[in-house]
C-alpha cells in the first residue's frame, strides 16, 4: 500500500538549514508527484513545494528563495532543504503523494522546532 | 494567493446528528479545463490530515457516503450525516485550482 515517512532532526537552530527526507513505498516517484506541506501548531496546512513525477519542481513563491526539493529515485526518497530558519518555521512537516490538485496520501509528519 | 475562509470555526454536534461546514474562496475555483479543484480533509487528533472529498463532491477511496460535498464557483459545503465518534477532529478545505494550493484555517467538530 501507499506509504510515506518523513525523517529529520526535531530541533534546528535559528538561521540554520533544515534537511528532511521523505521515504516512499507502494508507488514510484517517476509515476506520481510528491509535495511537502507544513502545519504550524493549531493552524491550517501550508503547501511548500512539489517534486513532479518527471523530476521538475515547483515552489511556493513565499518560500522559493529558501527552499530546495530534490529526489533519489533509486532510493525512493524525496528531500527538502530550507535555509535561514526562523521560529515561525516551527511546525509539523508532511510529505504527501499528490494528484496535482489534491493531496491523497500523507505521511505521519515530523515535528520541527526552531529554537536555540 | 487564493484565501480559503471556513465557517464556523468550531461546531458541536450530538452523535447521530448532521452538520454542515462552509468554505468560501477569494477567487473562483473553476480551472480553465472546466474542473473545480476543491477538496476536504479531516485531521483527527494527533494524526495527519486525510483526504475525504476531491473535485467538490467525489469521495476518496474508502470514505463513507455519510460525507458529501457540494458547491460551485466560490462557495462550497461539506455535510456529515449520522455523525459518529470517529468523525471528530478538524476539517479543512483546500483548493488546487490556482498556484499555490491553499487551505482553510479549519473547522473543529466536537461532541455536544
Total of DSSP H or I helical runs spanning 4+ residues of chain A: 0
Q: State the order of secondary-structure elements of chain A, H for helix, E for strand.
A: EEEEEEEEEEE
Q: Strand share of the residues of chain B?
A: over 45%
Secondary structure class of chain B reads mainly beta
Helix segment count of chain B?
0
Oligomer: heterodimer
Concise summary:
The complex is a heterodimer of chains A (116) and B (112). With 116 residues, chain A is mainly beta. Chain A has no helices and eleven strands.
Structure report:
The complex is a heterodimer of chains A (116) and B (112). In chain A, 0% of the residues lie in helices and 52% in strands. Chain A has 116 residues and is mainly β. In chain A, strands 2, 4, 5, 6, 9, 10 and 11 form a 7-stranded mixed sheet that branches. Chain A has a 4-stranded antiparallel sheet with strand order 1-3-8-7, with no helix packed on it. The mean pLDDT of chain A is 97. Chain B has strands at 4-7, 10-13, 19-25, 38-43, 49-54, 58-59, 67-72, 75-80, 89-95, 102-103, 107-111. In chain B, a hairpin with a 3-residue loop joins β5 and β6. In chain B, the strands form 2 sheets. In chain B, strands 2, 4, 5, 6, 9, 10 and 11 form a 7-stranded mixed sheet that branches. The chains are: A mainly beta (116), B mainly beta (112). At the A-B interface, β10 of A face β5 and β10 of B.
Topology, pairings included?
The complex is a heterodimer of chains A (116) and B (112).
Chain A: E1 3-7, E2 11-12, E3 18-25, E4 33-39, E5 46-51, E6 57-59, E7 67-72, E8 77-82, E9 91-98, E10 103-106, E11 110-114
Parallel strand pairs in A: 2-11
Antiparallel strand pairs in A: 1-3, 3-8, 4-5, 4-9, 5-6, 7-8, 9-10, 9-11
Chain B: E1 4-7, E2 10-13, E3 19-25, E4 38-43, E5 49-54, E6 58-59, E7 67-72, E8 75-80, E9 89-95, E10 102-103, E11 107-111
Parallel strand pairs in B: 2-11
Antiparallel strand pairs in B: 1-3, 3-8, 4-5, 4-9, 5-6, 7-8, 9-10, 9-11
Amino acid at each position: 500500500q501507499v506509504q510515506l515517512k518523513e525523517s529529520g532532526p526535531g530541533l534546528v537552530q535559528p538561521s540554520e538549514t533544515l534537511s528532511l527526507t521523505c521515504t516512499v513505498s507502494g508507488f514510484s516517484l517517476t509515476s506520481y508527484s510528491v509535495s511537502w506541506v507544513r502545519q504550524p501548531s493549531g493552524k491550517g496546512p501550508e503547501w511548500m513545494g512539489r517534486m513532479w513525477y518527471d523530476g521538475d519542481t515547483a515552489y511556493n513563491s513565499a518560500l522559493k528563495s529558501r527552499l530546495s526539493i530534490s529526489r533519489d529515485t533509486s532510493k525512493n526518497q524525496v528531500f527538502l532543504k530550507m535555509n535561514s530558519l526562523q521560529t515561525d518555521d516551527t511546525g509539523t512537516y508532511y510529505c504527501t503523494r499528490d494528484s496535482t490538485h489534491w493531496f491523497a496520501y500523507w505521511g505521519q509528519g515530523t515535528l520541527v522546532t526552531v529554537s536555540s | 494567493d487564493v484565501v480559503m475562509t471556513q465557517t464556523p470555526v468550531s461546531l458541536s454536534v450530538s452523535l447521530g446528528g448532521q452538520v454542515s461546514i462552509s468554505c468560501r474562496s477569494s477567487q473562483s475555483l473553476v480551472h480553465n479545463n472546466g474542473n473545480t479543484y476543491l477538496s476536504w480533509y479531516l485531521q483527527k487528533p494527533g494524526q495527519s490530515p486525510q483526504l475525504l472529498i476531491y473535485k467538490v463532491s467525489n469521495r476518496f477511496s474508502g470514505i463513507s457516503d455519510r460525507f458529501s460535498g457540494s458547491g460551485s464557483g466560490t462557495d462550497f459545503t461539506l455535510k456529515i450525516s449520522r455523525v459518529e465518534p470517529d468523525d471528530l477532529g478538524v476539517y479543512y478545505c483546500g483548493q488546487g485550482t490556482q498556484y499555490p494550493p491553499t487551505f482553510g484555517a479549519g473547522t473543529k467538530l466536537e461532541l455536544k
